[in-house]
Structure formats: C-alpha cells, structure tokens
Amino acid sequence: MQLLTSLKTTQEPQRRFMRHFSSPTSHFSTLNKERSPCEELSYILTYMEILKPRRRLIVNREVQYDVLMHLSILVVSLFLAQVLAASLFLYHYREVIPTMSALDFISRFRISFLVYQLIPLTLGLLIGSYIFNRLTSRIAGPLYNMKRILHSVDQDRSRDLEIKLREDDYFQEEIEDINRVLLKRRIK
Fold it and tell me: Which of 2, 71, 92, 105 is the most exposed place for a label (fewest CB within 10 A)?
C-alpha cells in the first residue's frame, strides 16, 4: 500500500514505471492506457501473484519440524548454559560481591566473567555445528544423489539408475516416487 501511495505522490517512480512497462520489449506492453500507473502496478502485482498470501507455510513437515526442533534446542541450550555459567561465576565470588560496588566488581572480574561465558558458548556452538552438519547432510545427501542420477538420465548413460538413500535421510517418499519413474523409463 505504501508503494502505491509513494507512486501517487512522486513523479519519478511513475516515469520509471511507464518507461519500463510501455517499452515494445516489455511483457506488459499491452497495458491498459486508460489506467493510471498506480492502478496498472497494482494490476500487474496482482497478476504476478505477488500480493497473494502464501498458501502453505509448512511444505515438508518432517524436514521443517526437525530443523525447527534442533534450532530451538540449540538456542535454549545456549541460553541455559550462559545462565548456568553466570550463576557459577557469581557463586564462586559470593564473598566478594557484597564488599564491592558494581563498577569495581565489573572492572576487576570482567575477564573472568567473559571466560566463564565463552567456554559454554564455544562448546555449545561446536556441538551445534556438528548436529547441524549431520542434519543438513540428511537433506543435502538425497538432493545430491537425485541430481547425480537425473544428470545421468539426461546424458543417457546406461547403468543402474536408482537413487539410494541412507535409512535416516529425508525425502524417502519423494525419492521412492522418482525411483519408480526411473524404473518405468528403464522398462520402456
């Protein structure tokens, strides 16, 4: 809506719009000349389905929920590790805290506090990187195998054309459908 309002108030966007969409090479060269550029832009955006809301937010439930679950576990674990490290730090210096002002405490123990915070953060990120690497290989592996086999089919290489997956890979049903099509192609 703001885009349409800005087009009404300034002349430069209107000129750029008309210059682009009224050119003979434009896909929209058959614009309705009776409509204003703002109305035409609204029509084009609606035609191109830019203004329509997304129909499905969850496309592949298994993959999207697993990624969301792992990401949530990582974030919560990092938060809890930071809270635990801060609590241990404060417990370690519990006798000193009442005798010092906050500014003195921070200036004296900031390096120790950072070390207490960086250790669980570093460990959490390393463990998280390992888990996400395993998770993404369960996504990328089947896609790579599918690309390799489809490229072989495109090149008409005659060999066993079947996409093989590990037991815990994603896209099992989709790959089974592709394998079925490849088998029918091989039989013909």
Answer: 2
pLDDT digits (tens, 9 = 90+) for 110-148: 898 898 889 999 999 999 999 999 999 999 999 999 898
Contact 38, 10 (CB under 8 A): no
Q: Which residue, 104, 103, 84, is CA-closest to 92? A: 84
State mean pLDDT over 153-163: 76
**CA dist., res. 132 & res. 165, Å (int):** 19
Instruction: Give residues with Cβ within 8 angstroms of 37, minimum separation 6.
Output: 7, 14, 17, 18
Q: Is the dihedral of CA 170, 171, 176, 181 positive or negative?
A: negative
Q: Specify the 3-state DSSP secondary structure of 17.
A: helix
SS3 call for 96: coil
Task: Count other Cβ atoms within 10 Å, centred on residue 120.
Answer: 19
CB 158 within 8 A of CB 119: no
> Both tokens of residue 172?
């099992």
pTM for the whole structure:
0.58
- The enclosing H or E element of 178 equals helix 172-187
What Rg, from alpha-carbon coordinates, does the chain have? 29
* Local structure of residue 60 (DSSP, 8 states): S
